[in-house]
Design brief:
By secondary structure, this protein is an alpha+beta fold. 52% of the residues lie in helices and 13% in strands. The protein contains 6 helices and 3 strands. The chain has helices at residues 12-20, 25-32, 39-45, 51-63, 85-88, 91-105; strands at residues 37-38, 67-72, 78-83. A hairpin with a 5-residue loop joins strand 2 and strand 3. The termini are far apart. Residues 1-5 have low confidence and may be disordered.
Length: 108
């Protein structure tokens, strides 16, 4: 049996960026901070993301335990996305980044 090689990181920031980095993941998390949303609702709040890219990022966030995907046995099927406890723990960090961005994009 092959051993799984553990990744080595230079800094713990690298770990965080691997899970929530990229153009869309933090924006998806910000849309979910106020509660559960369906795919189309997330897509409407982020109109520049393609459905393919949204699906890819939602799957990665779910795989990393940051969001929860709940499927309801209805016709037509309904799927809701929400933050896990791990996802909730990221929100203060994203809020701080938002404040920082506002501070440095504000006219002087």
């Amino acid at each position: 049996m092959d051993e799984v090689e553990e990744e080595e990181y230079i800094c713990s920031v690298e770990v965080a960026l691997n899970e929530i980095g990229g153009k869309w993941k933090s924006l998806i998390l910000c849309t979910l901070k106020d509660g559960k949303l369906r795919f189309s609702e997330i897509n409407n709040k982020l109109p520049e993301i393609t459905q393919r890219m949204l699906t890819k990022n939602l799957r990665e966030l779910e795989k990393d335990g940051i969001i929860l995907r709940k499927v309801f046995a209805e016709v037509p099927p309904r799927v809701e996305y929400s933050l896990t406890d791990k996802g909730e723990s990221v929100i203060p960090i994203l809020d701080a980044l938002c404040e920082w961005g506002e501070k440095y994009t504000a006219p002087e």
